[in-house]
Amino acid sequence: MTEPATNLDYDLRLLPKVSLHDHLDGGLRPSTIIELAAEVGHSLPSTDPVALGAWFVDSASSGSLERYLETFDHTIAVMQTREGLIRVAREFVEDLAEDGVVYGEVRWAPEQHLRAGLSLDDAVSAVQEGLDAGVEAAEERGHLIQVGQLITAMRHADRSQEIAELAVRHRDSGAVGFDIAGAEDGFPPSRFTEAFTYLASHQFPVTVHAGEAAGLDSIVSALVDGRALRLGHGVRIAEDIDVEFNEEDQLEVSASEGDEAVGLVTLGNVASWVRDRQIPLEVCPSSNLQTGAVEQFGGDIESHPIDLLYQTGFNITINPDNRLMSGITLTGEFELLTETFDYDLDDIRALTLNAAEAAFLPLEEREALIDYINDGYDNARD
Fold it and tell me: In Å, how far are 131, 191, 251 from 162, measured between CA atoms?
């Protein structure tokens, strides 16, 4: 997937950004995969970095979340050693910094990285060492960045309580939140109520993948059973929104503005709850197209409900999800939106500030992050 050329007169890559939904095992460099695979004896579809990168994008673009998830077999295979995890985490941060990200939350499932004998705590410590090294390397290049871990439990496994305890155990050494990921349909958050209760009792933040491969019931379960403070993807909340047009509206708008018709928007109870309480949606536009999450709305970026959600006041944040599988960066996602929906600098700033305000950071740090972002955007206007 190629990144579109922006129609704006400034370089979006230079603007400060916040990435809240970014998977560690979905952001590897193809060259790193090839080198690590050779070290551990793992076979790959290609040993050419360009061809391998293209294979990941093509394989992830089938329109099926299940097929999309299969691509992770190769990335996870090379992330089983302490050295491998450190390198991947370090490069992950370096790539974020290169893209202008100043705050990032990297989510990953430690339970998937134990094949070579690491313990859960060993794995988390190795990733944190890599993240710290990446932050230091970025600072040496003059780029300030802060990164936290979102410790993730896999939905199809039965280790959620153990992983919740792991996350809380590392809350003072890099872990900033908890998530559940993997096959959403058939594995609702209600399966993990005990773990979510444990996290709530320890006042540990939770975001839940919901509203991607499953609909409103999954979102409700994330909010009720998961006590989610944010919704991972969440785009299928649009199923609870009705937009009606009539001929009179169309004639009136076209005569006065020469623009598209404006319809009457009605929100259902779930959509109203999410919007009115400004529960952040971690929207990943390119990934949503690949996995078929927005197929019922049209299946292309023009019909993606993100603009409907944004225009009707939902708390939208923009994220890359899996940069390797989508062949994109966070800058590329913003460029896609400017080209498709004619978003301008004020829109991009608003979406970025939404993400900063939703970050799993103490209030004072969020306020400092917001000030830093505003300064960056003010300078972009000068």
Answer: 23, 14, 59
